[in-house]
Amino acid sequence: MATMADVARSAGVSVATVSHVLNETRPVRPHTRQAVLDAVEKLGYTPNTLARSLVTSRTRSIGLAVSAISNPYFTEILQGVEAGALEHGYSLLIADPHDDPAHERTVVQLLHERRVDGMIVAPSADPRELLAYLGRHEVPAVFLDRLVEAPRIDQVVTENAAPTAGLVTHLAGLGHRRIALIAGRPGLSTTHERITGYRDGLAAAGLPYDERLLVHGHSESAGAERATVALLSLPEPPTALVTANNAMTIGALRALRDSGVSVPEDIALCCFDDFAWADLFAPRLTAVAQPSRDIGATAVRVLLDRLAEPDRPARTVRLPCAFVHRTSCGCPEQPRKGTLA
Predict the structure, then answer these.
(1) Neighbouring residues of 276: CB distance < 8 A, sequence distance ≥ 6
(2) Strand arrangement, sheet containing 316-319
């Protein structure tokens, strides 16, 4: 098995120079760096990650805590994080906090005990214990998807209010006057911002806000199914429906089917979160598409910036969403895509 000394001899440099190239601990001239990398490739040298971490106090690993199993939306974010981590030579340790504050605190501690260099977390609706742990142990971290009042934490989120308002005004433009929203789990910033967008959209369309048309599906399919049944049971049920995430879209569609309600003939439907099979439904689902993989990749870049400059001011990055116009809203077949915010 090739050693670092073998690489140094093959590249015609010192062992220290090889170490600087592999560990990125000091700038090295481009041609020298390339000679080292060529020697590594030629000899099949594999760095001793454990030994390197003992010297540098870095493991070149990132901890990721997102509810990827219970929320398919986070699966695409995970893919973006993984691609970004691998691009920069980092490995990934993954844990699922199940959107539970107590379990969230536990999995973050477990990741920290495995000496990850930093963490990317989709915080729960009550992140107080999480914030306390990260602050007490000075763990470099980036929050994604959900915005939290944490002035020292970097965050990567998408626009929520304006895209939701866009869905509402689109439905109002089609003549709908009773537009309902199935909102997510209370306490999440995404839920709050999408409700704000819903009300903004109603106001922009000159429609009154009716509290009976705003129901919570708690970000889950089963919750949205119950919420849809409740909406259909109103004396004046809605003629249009906005669902605030992909899991709730599935629940709403199930309830509509079981109730014999057709989309878009009996009720128009628009959803926040596009997903891979949304184009395969009949009708095809009109949706707001979040840049899921870009969210993950951006979170990695922001975390690496934090690791490189620990004292830099915290920043919040907001990414735009796109409007994917299909037919569940009642429009004829004319797919187009444009930015909502």
Answers:
(1) none
(2) 91-95, 61-65, 118-121, 141-144, 154-158, 316-319
Beta bridge partners of 65: 95, 121
- What are the pLDDT digits (tens) for 241-269? 999 999 999 999 999 999 999 999 999 99
Residue 304's SS3 state is: helix
279 φ, ψ to 5°?
-80, -10
Q: How far is CA 338 from CA 288, 327, 341, in A?
A: 10, 16, 9
Nearest to 59 by CA among 120, 118, 134, 140: 118
Q: What is the DSSP letter of 239?
A: S
Q: Which of 224, 235, 238, 322 is nearest to 273 (CA)?
A: 322
191-205 per-position pLDDT tens digit: 999 999 999 999 999
Tokens of 186: 């209370």
Report yes or no: 261 and 267 within 8 Å, Cβ to Cβ. yes
Residue indicated by tokens 């010297």: 55
Q: Judge whether 323 and 166 are in contact, CB under 8 Å.
A: yes
Question: What 3-state class would DSSP assign to 58?
Answer: coil
